[in-house]
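Data availability (excerpt). The following record was deposited with the supplementary files.
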Amino acid sequence: MRARTFFIGFLLPIAIFVAAVLLSFATGIRVPAPRISASEAFNEKSAWLRERLAPTNCDVLVIGSSVALNDVDGREIAARLKTSNVINAASWGLNIEDLPTFYAHLTQHCKFRTVILATTYVDFESHWEKGIDWHAFERYLSGDQLKPYIESPDLYYYTRRITAGWRDRTHPGNVDSLDFDHGGSVLLSCGRHDLSDDRVYAYHRNTISSARPTAFKAFQQLTAQIRADGARFVIVSTPIEAVARKEFGAAAIQAFWQPIETFARAQHVEFVYGQTQLALEDNAFVDYLHLNRCGAERFTSWFLDSLHPTTS
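Predicted structure:
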């Protein structure tokens, strides 16, 4: 009796779930990406990378958090750097501490010539532990499609993703969109976005201070990895809205970036100071930290103009 109860209550739902996943694969129905981490955005980007990462698709890599995801227009990069192979691997809340390990896994599949870290002060100050299973991530990238689902049979997670509706994740008018374009960016619509006051005025609580020591150490490690690979490394700080720039003050913003910029310059890494040097109008922003499509186009074009010319 106990064995039967165990099977019905525990094993049967998992068996049904695995069967549903297999059926979805066979019929081409879209299912949520496997729960490799606690971040839906990282999981969905992993599924996108699984299809896109290949030696023939690798040239320019964009990494970072949501500001790299939303603020960098891969089409501008492709046109200006004369390449069709742009991989934007960014996802929400990807910490600076995550990047050395993340980059190491990506470079097992691709050899990039240029790496662009688009980042903001929050990336160096706050920390969100996403519990990324890096072994599962690598297996998934390497072609193991079903095993990550079996190893993480979180029915609540998958059910919630499906019942929440895919429209919220595929519509560019939604700030939580995960509708990756050909290069992996998510460019949000230029119209008005309906946001809560908590997000609109988030700069009141996300004040600027200094980088975490662990973040700075990880940044140094990432720099060493990219230089060892012989790739060009570009760091660009992304714009913030005028109201936030005013509240923080130019001196405080510059003081935050100064040690990061000093280290980058000493390592012969290009640093583009977009946090204060590019003053975009408010209608270029979705919130104080993220750009819409119109702002992303202008920002990407601007920072590409700021790069050193190359002969390659």
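Summary of structural features: The chain has a mean pLDDT of 87.
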